[in-house]
Amino acid sequence: MKTITVGHTPDTDDAFMFYALLNGKIDLLGLSFEDFLEPITGLNMRAVSGYYDMTAVSVGYLPQVAQNYHVLTAGACMAEFRGPVLALNKKSMAKRIAVPGFNTTGYYALKLFKPDVECHQVAFDQILPAVLAGTYDGGVIISEDQMRIDATRLDTVDLGKWWREETGLPLPLGVDVVKACLPHTIQKRINTVFKSSIQYALSNTEEALHYALKFGRGIDRVRAETFVKTFVSQYTCSLGEQGENAIRFFLEKCMSAQLFSQGNSITFVDGCE
Asked: Based on C-alpha coordinates, what's the Rg of the chain?
């Protein structure tokens, strides 16, 4: 039995997607999985060296890791109508902005929206408190803290909504990737198992949410469900042609803005029949 090492974030939506896979709810097709939790910035950096067999990465970082990994068509996080959210103390004074990492899609989306801002890297779960304390003029919120912003007096700019209005496409935030050196049959099998896990969660929402709440960092069930429903969508089960095109378009826009140089081409992996 092949054991697949998996890196994913300690976020509610990831926990929701991996629930069935990690808890014996579905057929693993002869595979076994061992998971490790890290913030997305850490997962991005580990992907450069091909640390995990399967891992979540920011879409904006794909060109840096495409030599080592192929993109699964299951597991994508696409902002269709919300997020990431730029939370601001004063819109007119938005100069010093906290970002969760310079390798995250939230950072790249911010620079496409407002190229001249001064960015400072802050741990993702410390950004909202830092903005509320006035340490920064604003911050890009990518975690469950998006569900807490409405209770503050901060101004907001929804970067996902802005991107949709500008391009007509969803903003691709994160994807799951699999090592390119694994046999292609194993890559496809991993995608199939992961898709089944997501479908199980969507069909057994109460059960999967109960598990995912353990990773919610204090948010209540209603907010957790809203967060999950926002970021686990039709594209999460399968990117499809539109999802793949949205990823390519976003990367092209980032390269045109000179946010990074031309990287390796992206290869997508679908599931087995």
From this structure: 18
* 132: pLDDT strictly greater than 50: yes
| Among 143, 167, 191, residue at a domain's last position | 167
Number of domains into which the chain is organized? 2
152: domain CATH number is 3.40.190.10
Same domain, 110 and 129: yes
Query: According to the model, what pLDDT value does residue 237 have?
Result: 95
Residue 1: pLDDT band by 50, 70, 90 thresholds?
low
217: confidence class by pLDDT, cuts 50, 70, 90: low
Residue 273, pLDDT > 50, answer: no
Q: Is the same domain home to 71 and 184?
A: yes
Report the range out of 2-16, 77-91, 136-150, 205-219 with the highest average pLDDT: 2-16
d(CA 4, CA 60): 24
E strand intervals along the chain: 2-8, 31-37, 54-58, 69-72, 77-79, 85-88, 96-99, 118-121, 138-141, 155-158, 171-179, 268-269
Pairing of strands 138-141, 96-99: parallel
Calculate the average pLDDT of the chain: 91
The last residue of a domain, from among 135, 167, 199: 167
Kindly list the distances between the CA atom of residue 64 and the CA atoms of 45, 98, 203, 272, in Å, as whole numbers in the listed order.
10, 23, 35, 27
Q: Are residues 107 and 233 in the same domain?
A: no
Domain that holds residue 137: 85-167
Asked if 116 and 249 sit in the same domain, the reply is: no
**Are 74 and 137 in a shared domain?**
no
Query: Span 71-81, mean pLDDT?
Result: 93
